[in-house]
Amino acid sequence: MKNQMKYLLLVPGIILLAVFLVMPLLSIFLPTIFTEAGVTLDSYIQFFQDPLNVRIFIRTLRVALITTIICVFLAVPAAYYMSRCKQSVKGILMTISIFPLLTNSVIRSFAWITILGRNGIINQILTSIGIVEEPIQMLYTEFAIVIGSVYLFLPLMLTTLAGVMDNIENDMMEAAESLGANRLVAFLKVILPLSLPGIIVGSTLVFTGTLSAYTTPQLLGGNSNTVMATFIYEKSMSLGDWEGTSVIAVIMIITTVIAMKVLNTIANRLDKRGGDNA
Amino acid sequence: MRKNRFLGVWTVLVFAFLLLPLVIVTITAFGEANVVQFPIQGFTFKWFGKALSSNSFMSACFYSLRLALVATLLALLVGIPGAYALARYSIKGKQLIKSFFLSPTIVPGTVLGFALFQVIVVQLQIPYDIGLLFGHFLIVLPYVIRIVGSSLEQFDFSIEEAAWTLGCGKIKTFFTIVLPNITSGISSAFLLAFINSFNNVPVSMFLIGPGTTTLPATLMGYLESGYDPTVPAFSVLMMLATIGIMFVVEKTLGIAALSK
Amino acid sequence: MAFFNLQDINVSYDKKNNILEGLNLEIEKGELVSLLGPSGCGKTTTLRVVAGFIEPTHGQFILDDTDMTKVPVHKRNFGLVFQSYALFPHLSVFDNVAFGLKLQKVSKEEIKKRVENILEVCDLKGFEKRFPKQLSGGQRQRVALARALVVEPKLLLLDEPLSNLDAKLRINMRVEIKRLQRKLGITTIFVTHDQEECFSISDKVAVMNGGVIEQYDTPENIYRTPKTEFVARFIGFENFIDLKRKDAHTYIASDGSEFVVDNGCDKEDPKGTIRPEDIQIVSSQDNVENKITGKVIVRTFLGKSYQYELDTPLGVIVVNGSSDHVLQAQDTVCVSLPKGKIVLV
């Protein structure tokens, strides 16, 4: 094939990405730093001077962090169990984890409205057995966003981890046991460190996913629990503040990229361990 | 395999957590009352009838299907040659180009939606639905690049060379030798791209217009303004469609094709 | 009672088919015993019962007068070397070897001393900081061995530890294992399917088949006088001839010819068997014992000798002949089965 031909195959994609991704992103980014007064970071400084904005920013990070931690905590034992199951059982469990991934996030959030709502299932149970007299406010809280996000991203963590843990041989656990480790110790000292790279990949997906998720905080967070993703929509479509929205958009991209880089660095450092083959 | 009871119980609880909410949604679709409640009173199929005859649901559904189909086909048309070039040839800056093709994944959906809305719709005055289409194209392109790319990386290109030596032209070889060997990759890329486009909310929220609204956006609208059990009924229909797709995939490609 | 005692062990996964059936095995302190057999014979299962990964459905495992049957794996303190080595990829050589000692809460200085000591014994000095990925197959094998030995286990269990090494290294390593085992005086069970490996290293060999031990004896005795047809075939006997007993040392073949043997047996119709290399090619005039005449059907070159398949009235007989005098297909040839080499099974 002619030398140019191979580049020709890439051209359509590059052009479309340039027109519909790079150009729009640049055209919202550039005005935020090029102003009549020259190049300045003023709009970003202003953003972080408003305590309301900072609260939203911190809330977004907090929700993403807590969601990630809960997902790791729930998924690690389950994924390990899954990876040690018979092929047929593993297939069923895998199917059950994939199903929510393919189900619309609106439906998945909607489920929690029914569960957490004022007359929802949990409140009905709590009031009927007399733990509380008045229904508790669970929907439209940060707690609801966290639950909804865990629900949204747990399958992703599960499938990621199950793939990694499949590659850990049974011998590892047995070797640790034969050296005097009970199963818990063997799990903590051998299986967990061996799955760390997978845990980090999964955490990256969950953390950045929660960071940018829109549906769940919109439906479960209500008006007083704005996160960055819902803030963008509010600021632009309700308030028509294009420049303010652009600032939020840029901050979101930067936050996502930083989170990815940090987790990537950790993953690489862990992976370097032992280096290449001798 | 020696199993641990604690792990077993933990796993059951985790999977119950995954499934129960969807089971509850399903059950609420059968209640007779005009509000979504659990446990339900009475039993009826009427909400399904209402959902299927609802103009706004059905037209949004067809629009979403069309949108997902066109966006996915466009992504395949652009993505397969790209992935092929990246896997087949030594290209300067190969990693960079690949990252560029995958870069839409690191842009949060709302940011992408807003940027497209700002530039395409507001500044360039291009119709909403073009913006929506290319927004969805961007969302699904990385799936095509990643999945088709990985099946091309496993492809033994000496087969292609064998075809050339047998007198098969290069373009003909691509269609008769290469493509048939990566069909499973293309199929799973198609499915995942299609499903993710169909389910997308954040990009769509900025780019829907009158007559060009997507199904998830319509559902969102209902949920925010007050709704009856047609919402869970329609949800059940969507889940049934998903189950149908998963069943077909399991019988053909294997379920793992959907977890890439 | 012997130091190590497996009594009437049954293992079954589905309650119908036993993987091990009424297995008994006694080992004296300090002995190295091999479990030899084809895949699926139950040798690895036996080892896993001993290690504690499988709880037998019936029977007892007694070690040093203590019932170990229900003791969990991590409390047994046995050294186990896996076929895959199962080194922990995230730990350095030092940490791999120190893993068991740390769990025993041995002091830091003691751990350092003992790990360094065992690494020296295993010829791994200077590799402390390497990771398993950076080691060759033989080195990994020695790390696995060091890791198992450093805890001063009551038993050393080796599950086909040499099967992933190339032929030359395998011979070196088996000498090494034997040397270490002797030096430390540690009771050892060695699972293998390679008879040469097993004979060279073991004090005793248990030949297994279908979940039972067919023969348990010294390597020499097993090599010379297998007790069953399975054992005989497994260790290289061919030429199984149906015989009828006439008296203790005389047996009649199906064509009426008489065979004399040195070691008789009590069976009424045993099979006589002999290794191809023990059969002598003779001339038709020679007056020798147990003579058979046959025609060459197939000739195979083995390097230092030729192997011939002969068509005889007693069926096909396989014979090794020297390369000095080469027979052709269709040649008629006389062979003699020396009475001292025939084994009755």
From TrEMBL, chain B:
Residues 61-249 form the ABC transmembrane type-1 domain. One of its GO terms (cellular component) is plasma membrane. InterPro entries: MetI-like, MetI-like_sf. GO terms for biological process: transmembrane transport. It comes from the Bacteria. It is a multi-pass membrane protein. The chain crosses the membrane at residues 57-87, 99-120, 126-145, 174-195, 230-249. Pfam families: BPD_transp_1. PROSITE patterns: ABC_TM1. It is found in: Cell inner membrane; Cell membrane. Keywords: Cell inner membrane, Cell membrane, Membrane, Transmembrane, Transmembrane helix, Transport. Belongs to the binding-protein-dependent transport system permease family. This is ABC transporter permease. It comes from Candidatus Fimiplasma intestinipullorum.
TrEMBL record, chain C:
It holds the Pfam family TOBE_2. One of its GO terms (molecular function) is ABC-type transporter activity. SMART domains: AAA (SM00382). InterPro entries: AAA+_ATPase (IPR003593), ABC_SmlMolc_Importer (IPR050093), ABC_transporter-like_ATP-bd (IPR003439), ABC_transporter-like_CS (IPR017871), Mo/tungstate-bd_C_term_dom (IPR008995), P-loop_NTPase (IPR027417), Transp-assoc_OB_typ2 (IPR013611). One of its GO terms (cellular component) is ATP-binding cassette (ABC) transporter complex. It comes from the Bacteria. Residues 4-235 form the ABC transporter domain. Gene3D superfamilies: 2.40.50.100, P-loop containing nucleotide triphosphate hydrolases. Keywords: ATP-binding, Nucleotide-binding, Transport. The keyword ATP-binding applies. This is ABC transporter ATP-binding protein. The lineage of its organism: Bacteria, Bacillati, Bacillota, Clostridia, Eubacteriales.
